Every structure is written in structure tokens, then in C-alpha cells.
Amino acid sequence: MDFSNVNDIKQSFEAAGGEFISPPAVFTERLPKIKAFVFDWDGVFNSGFKQDNTGSPFSEPSSMGINMLRFSGYLKSGEAPLIFIITGENNLPAIKLASREHFTGVYLSIRNKLAALEHINKEFGVLSHEIAFAFDDILDLGLAKEVALRFQVNRLANPLMNTFVQTSGLVDYKTSADGNSHAVREICELIIGLNKNYEQTISERMRFSATYQSYLAERNSRNPLFFEGKTGRIQIYNIV
Q: Does an H or E element contain 208, and which?
């Protein structure tokens, strides 16, 4: 397999069950302009089930995927992309992951995700056509309509919604994995492949190269900002 060949990459992901709703040309055109990746939480990083009020979990394979996605962007342009989580709930594991991995920002208790998108536009200077979004459910669709690349996490339980999303032009790629099977990792692997530097990204990390260490030091020098929208207005959320 040629890890930098778009057709080989497409065939690999389709063989695993992924579905390209948009042709690869759409990704190769839009991906170089992407400055930020936004992830929903429930149903994307996990199954969406909750056992108590602490929130729903994440997986280490998905965490590694995001780190390699950022490193891939760093290798390609000299600057790692911004990473945001937008969730409708106060998910403590999202706070933990973002803090540990030094994401850019987390939006908690967001009922209208378009408000969070507008906040990102204004506060971080990233326009909607410079954003990619990973999502799974109805409350995500308004945001999906506005951004450049859309990755839907597959779930067999909602065939009508899946059809609606596709016929409404709200998705570019639908994962094979569901949220409980590391769908975020699948999305990240695809993006790194389409960046055409998969082998370099993995090889540099394997060797813990000077380049990777420089990326890691820069990544770890920044701490995430936290916001919440419980009142309908987005404001700073202070971590106790």
C-alpha cells in the first residue's frame, strides 16, 4: 500500500466499512485550509451511555489519534491545528482529556452549538470554512451545515437520521466504527493519511525524534480554555 496515495487510502477505509459521501477530491481541496478540528463528545468519543453524573468516557486509542493528527498538521505546515470539544453536558472526562492533552478549548453545557461555533469564530479567529467537525446526532447538524468538512460517527440505531444527514449534504465521511469502538481514531487516521504524511508522522513518533519533541513542548506550553453555555450565554467556566 502507498500511504500517500489517495485511492489506496480510500480503498483501505472502505474495506474497513467507512463510507466516503463526498469524493476524495473534496478532502484534498478543503483539508489544507483546515485550521481547527471540533469534536462532539457523547456518541463520538464513546457510546453515549452514562452511569452517573460524572459524564461519559474517552478511549486512549482516540486520544493517541488526536495527538498524531496534531503532529501530522505540525509536520505539514509548522503549526498544529486547534482542537475543540463541544458538548451539551458537563462532561468531566472531556475536561480531563483536554487538560492532559492540552487541547485549545472545551465548550460545556452547550444547547445551541451554532453559538459555540460563532464564539470560536470570534474568540479564536478561525472561520467556519476553516473548521472540520466530528459529530453523531441531531443537535450537531446546525454546526455541520456551516463548516468545511464533516465526519459522522456511525450508529445503526438511527437509519432515518443517517439518510437525512446524507441527502441534506451534511456529511463528507461516515465512519465504520461507532463511538464505542474508537471512531475518533478512525477519523484521525483518515485525516493523517489524506495529509500524505502518515509514514513520517508515525516514524517520527516511534523514534521520539527531535521534531516530535519540539512539537510536544509547544503543545504542552498551552493550556485549554473552558467555556459553558448553561444560561444560554457562553462564558468562562472556571475549573475548581
A: none
Q: What are the extents of the domains in the chain?
A: 6-232
Half-sphere exposure (Cβ direction) of 133: Cα atoms closer than 13 Å: 29
Q: What is the pLDDT of residues 102-152, one digit of tens each?
A: 999 999 999 999 999 999 999 999 999 999 999 999 999 999 999 999 999
Its pTM surpasses 0.70: yes
- Beginning with the edge strand found earlier in the chain, give each strand of the sheet holding 173-174 in spatial order: 19-20, 173-174, 149-152, 131-135, 36-40, 82-86, 105-108, 225-228, 235-236
Q: Tell me the fold of 6-232.
A: Rossmann fold (3.40.50)
- Give the distance from CA 191 to its chain's centroid: 10
CA angle 72, 93, 68 (to 5 degrees): 10
